């Protein structure tokens, strides 16, 4: 996966040594669950979050704490209020599917600042490239400068590769080390890796994908 990680780092800026690749974001989230959740632990997600978060928590025997949203948007204060000494992971899809809402970066930073250092904040950034507003950020900076943040984009949406199963995450070195200990050794095959590298170089398709989303967003809203 060295070539793919180098290509991701070149495109998006993070250190290749702190990149993890998986068979879609859901496998990365499953590995996070295996590394950080177990019986007696708690995890927090919002009511309309990606359903796989709760499934992973249940599989690991952890308690799933589902927090109500405000106007279909993650509520920072409600999430922080739900944190207990047993909380190990907080999942935040930003932007969120299916609500189509997002937290501005200042709110994400406030959420992180309110979490104990031993709680892992997982930012699911599957749709990050589609947000065109100045108050949004994917979380690369937060993951770069803190010890308990994972930022996880994917090739499934912008690059249209959902069926090939390819996602990636950027995290502190010690988090990558913990996840690598539970990763299956051959989780992303060579064909998918090669397609990922090619997709990162295909700027024409990226612009086509963004334009298509802008067009369909207006149509769906209407």
Structural write-up:
The protein has 222 residues and is an alpha/beta fold. It is 42% helix and 15% strand. The protein has nine helices and seven strands. Strands 3-2-4-5-6 form a five-stranded parallel β-sheet, sandwiched between helices. Strands 1-7 form a two-stranded antiparallel sheet. α1 runs parallel beside α8 (190-201), α2 packs parallel to α3 (52-59) and α4 (76-82) runs parallel beside α5. The longest helix is centred in the C-terminal third of the chain and has 19 residues, at 203-221. It is globular and about 45 Å long. The termini are far apart. The mean pLDDT is 96.
Q: Give the beta-strand count.
A: 7
Order of helices and strands: HEHEHEHEHEHEEHHH
Strand order, sheet with most strands: 3-2-4-5-6
The value of Rg in angstroms is 17 Å
**Multimeric status of the protein:** single chain
Which structural class do you get from the secondary structure elements? Answer: alpha/beta
* Number of H/I helices: 9
């Amino acid at each position: 996966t060295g070539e793919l990680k180098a290509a991701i780092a070149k495109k998006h800026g993070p250190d290749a040594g702190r990149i993890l690749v998986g068979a879609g974001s859901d496998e990365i989230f499953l590995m996070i669950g295996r590394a950080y959740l177990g019986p007696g632990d708690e995890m927090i997600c919002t009511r309309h979050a990606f359903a796989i978060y709760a499934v992973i928590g249940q599989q690991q025997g952890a308690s799933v704490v589902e927090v109500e949203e405000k106007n279909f948007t993650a509520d920072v204060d409600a999430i922080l209020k739900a944190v207990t000494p047993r909380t190990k992971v907080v999942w935040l899809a930003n932007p969120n599917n299916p609500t189509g809402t997002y937290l501005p970066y200042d709110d994400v930073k406030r959420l992180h600042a309110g979490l104990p250092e031993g709680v892992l904040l997982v930012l699911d950034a599957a749709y990050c490239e589609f947000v065109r507003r100045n108050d949004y950020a994917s979380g690369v900076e937060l993951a770069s400068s803190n010890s308990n943040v994972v930022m996880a984009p994917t090739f499934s949406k912008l690059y249209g590769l959902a069926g090939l199963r390819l996602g990636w995450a950027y995290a502190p070195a010690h988090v990558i080390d913990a996840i690598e200990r539970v990763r299956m050794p051959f989780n992303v095959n060579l064909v998918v890796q090669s397609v990922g590298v090619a997709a990162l170089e295909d700027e024409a398709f990226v612009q086509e994908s963004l334009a298509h989303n802008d067009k369909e967003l207006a149509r769906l809203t209407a």
